[in-house]
Amino acid sequence: MTDLGYDLFIVLHLLGFVYWLGGDVGVFYSSGFVVNPKYSVQTRTVAAKIMMDLDLIPRICMTWMLTIGAQLASMQGVDHYPGQMIALWVLSPLWCFMVIYMHFSHGSPLSKAMGPIDFWLRRILIAGIIASVIYTIATGRLDTTPWLTAKVALFAYLIFAGVMIRRHLPGFIVGLTALAKGSINDDENAQMNKGLSGARPWVLSIWVVVFLEAVLGVVKPGNELALKFAALF
């Protein structure tokens, strides 16, 4: 591919990191207003709308990052398994469509059917990435680019953290539903706060891991050392 094409994918990769982390920060900040009982129901409802809309951005970024990263690796000479890039280029548009559709058509029959599919897709991706990383390390396939193996492994954690966040959402959703109806009681406030408190450590861990992913991609630690070691043989 031309240098222009490579530069385009670099820009897309960088934008993915920027909007993923930036969007998550916005969601985190606005969530504090949503759960704060000192604010009026109307104010909290508006904050919830802002939070939910912002949350769509990092979720879209996640659906594309694996494919864009793999494409960049391929353009740098990293070989992929037969059919892997085709599968990834099919995965990202479909996954992105599901995420966007579920956001804007929440509650529709198709949206409800997509929910479990999206959940199991994330589990399958986690298992697939872990298996791929183990195989890669065992066979030494990417010994000259250890940073790339680390990035792929960390991406599995990012998906896992998102799944764990979902485990704490039911209580938070109870509060959102109450706010949408125009009133919220103490018990619903408590459930909402408990759900958010349980999710926050996972959100913060995502920030750290996304930052580490960016550092690995820029610094490429161990790359020169690995190349020198390989040259000895």
Describe this structure in words.
- The chain has 233 residues and is mostly helical.
- It has one domain (3-231).
- 85% of the residues lie in helices and 0% in strands.
- The chain is built from 8 helices and no strands.
- Helix 3 runs antiparallel to helix 4.
- Mean pLDDT is 89; it is low at 225-233.
How does the overall form come out from the CA principal axes?
elongated
Domain module count = 1
Mean pLDDT: 89
| Poorly predicted runs of 5 or more residues | 225-233
Total number of β-strand segments? 0
Query: What is the count of DSSP helices, taking H or I runs of 4+ residues?
Result: 8
User: Termini separation (Å)?
Assistant: 31 Å
User: Structural class given helices, strands, pairing?
Assistant: mainly alpha
Query: Strand fraction band?
Result: under 5%
**CA gyration radius, whole angstroms:** 20 Å
Order of secondary-structure elements: HHHHHHHH
Q: Note the main sheet.
A: none
What percent of the residues sit in helical stretches (DSSP H or I)? over 70%
Chart the SSEs and their pairings:
Blueprint: H1 3-34, H2 41-75, H3 84-104, H4 109-139, H5 146-167, H6 169-181, H7 186-219, H8 223-231
Helix pairs in contact: 1-2, 1-7, 2-3, 3-4, 4-5, 5-7, 6-7
Keywords:
elongated, single chain, 233 residues, 0% strand, disordered C terminus, mainly alpha
Summary, kept brief:
The protein is mainly alpha-helical and 233 residues long.
